[in-house]
Design brief:
Blueprint: E1 31-32, H1 49-53, H2 62-76, E2 80-81, H3 87-93, H4 100-118, H5 121-143, H6 151-164, H7 180-193, H8 205-225, H9 241-250, H10 253-266, H11 270-287, E3 301-303, H12 312-318, E4 325-327, H13 336-361, H14 372-391, H15 402-422, H16 425-447, H17 458-467
Length: about 500
């Protein structure tokens, strides 16, 4: 996240990649952010009176809290941004807290942010104390949901938990524990699942931003964890049309994945698996009606041998004849169309590989209602979608940013796992070469100025998502533990 020693100007802090798993962005509108004013007197690179004032009680430090939040905001959000998943932070920048819990959340986030920026032990210790206090308050509130009487109280409860998800872990995790951001995001799902939007109420920008942040990121976290995830359809209008379509088709997928894993682990009865197979078939039929899966559609292509060699993956692709022609990069604003297509393909490939996994581990006679011809069709479609992912990689080699590079890694690793399971050795070798080039590119970006701070957690959930494609292999349980696996070059926001 924030570098220890390299100071960047505000204009250089461009957060132009979607947050979290980056599946599909709402319609892009470039707007001028009306952000909190960042005081020139607030120098986060050296301890000063402002930092020390953060040690005062919340009620006496609202102005200083605003300044600390402004510095956090400008570290991760560009002055001119598209409206995407992290937009609740933009809305929160203009929002005056009305409850103590949100004031305390901003206070804690400001403490942690400045502590990591200046390396101040006193601020760090105080941030841990404040974090413990607000956790106690949140736990009490969630145990007594009847105390959340108004929409404002509900909104600020969700906003408080969302803010805390941007903090680093206060303790070192054990090998089996998720990072705290995932725990906070699960808590938000719990809060939403117990409440429905008031009839006829008009959502504020903050309401919509919190819903997008919670449901989009929460859904992809559930896919990576293969755990049940619940959403009340009455919240869907707060999302973009694209995400409404996605959830209308795939909302049940996390719980089906959990059911399959449980059945295969415990030797569950065939009837339960047949029910899951039927639900996956219906989901598959619904998904394949969307244009993202038109495999016969014509795509403008570019000769791989003529790719610009300045990008590491380009050099690897140009040296291979496995995919001699690749699709021309998406030209829509911020690659919105490519990102939307990627999300659909991730999910349909997960469906296909889950069906194939069931068939692989259970005798064929358990599935008399399913013809062998249809089964072969599923396997062929998994191969076709994997090829489609490989053909679409050029949309993620530019811009040369860390999040885009990791999204490309996600695509190629999913495709590689499918090819490997199907014995497509040539395609699998192409993927491995590209993954080696991608690792070099990721490291270069981290070492350069372009490796700007990001709140995105795509790298943390990537192992769990791609593991689904290893359908003939025993799953590695470590893949479904959501946590940072690479030590960041920049100093993380840790309390």
């Amino acid at each position: 996240m924030r570098p220890d020693s390299t100071r960047r100007t505000n204009s250089g802090l461009i957060f132009d990649a979607p947050g979290a798993v980056c599946p599909e962005c709402p319609p892009i509108q470039h707007v001028r952010v009306s952000a909190p004013v960042r005081s020139k007197s607030l120098d986060v690179f050296r301890p000063n009176d402002t930092a020390l004032q953060l040690l005062t009680p919340v009620s006496n430090s609202s102005v200083v809290d605003d300044q600390a939040f402004a510095d956090f905001f400008y570290t991760y959000i560009s002055p001119e941004v598209g409206i995407w998943r992290q937009s609740y932070l933009i809305a929160l920048a203009d929002y005056a807290p009305k409850t103590t819990i949100l004031q305390r959340a901003k206070h804690t986030l400001g403490l942690a942010h400045l502590a990591s920026s200046v390396g101040d032990d006193l601020l760090s210790r105080r941030s841990r104390i404040e974090y413990g206090r607000i956790l106690g308050e949140l736990r009490f509130t969630m145990c007594f949901p009847s105390k959340i009487r108004t929409r404002t109280e509900f909104r600020e409860l969700v906003a408080s938990i969302a803010l805390l998800s941007h903090l680093g872990d206060p303790v070192v995790n054990s090998i089996s524990a998720d990072d705290s951001w995932a725990t906070h995001l699960w808590a938000i799902q719990h809060v939403f699942s117990g409440r429905v939007p008031p009839a006829g109420a008009r959502d504020t920008a903050l309401d919509q931003g919190l819903a997008r942040h919670s449901f989009m990121n929460g859904f992809m976290l559930a896919i990576a964890k293969r755990k049940n995830w619940v959403i009340d359809a009455r919240w869907l209008p707060a999302l973009s049309q694209g995400w409404t379509d996605v959830l209308a088709v795939f909302h049940e997928l996390p719980s089906l994945l959990e059911g399959v894993d449980h059945a295969l682990t415990t030797g569950g009865d065939v009837h339960s698996l047949l029910h899951i197979v039927e639900r996956l078939r219906q989901m598959r039929v619904a998904a394949l009606q969307f244009p993202e899966f038109d495999l016969e559609a014509d795509h403008e292509t570019v000769d791989a041998a003529r790719l610009h060699s300045g990008i590491e993956e380009h050099s690897a692709m140009a040296a291979s004849t496995t995919f001699p022609a690749l699709n021309v990069p998406d030209a829509t604003a911020e690659g919105r169309q490519a990102i939307a297509g990627l999300h659909w393909r991730i999910l349909i490939l997960t469906v296909e590989c889950t069906l194939l996994r069931i068939w692989h581990y259970y005798p064929e006679d358990c599935f008399d209602p399913i013809s062998n011809v249809w089964q072969r069709g599923v396997e062929q479609n998994a191969y076709n979608v994997a090829r489609m992912l490989c053909m679409s990689v050029l949309s993620f080699t530019q811009p040369d940013k860390l999040v885009r590079a990791i999204m490309l890694r996600l695509m190629i690793k999913m495709a590689h796992n499918v090819f490997e399971q199907q014995g497509a050795s040539t395609e699998a070798a192409w993927c491995r070469t590209c993954l080696e080039a991608n690792a070099t590119r990721v490291q270069r970006i981290k070492d350069e100025e372009s490796g700007a701070p990001t709140l995105c957690k795509i790298a943390d959930v990537l192992p769990g998502i791609v593991e689904a494609c290893r359908y003939k292999s025993k799953f590695d349980p470590e893949a479904f533990v959501v946590r940072a696996r690479e030590a960041p070059k920049t100093k993380a926001l840790i309390i």
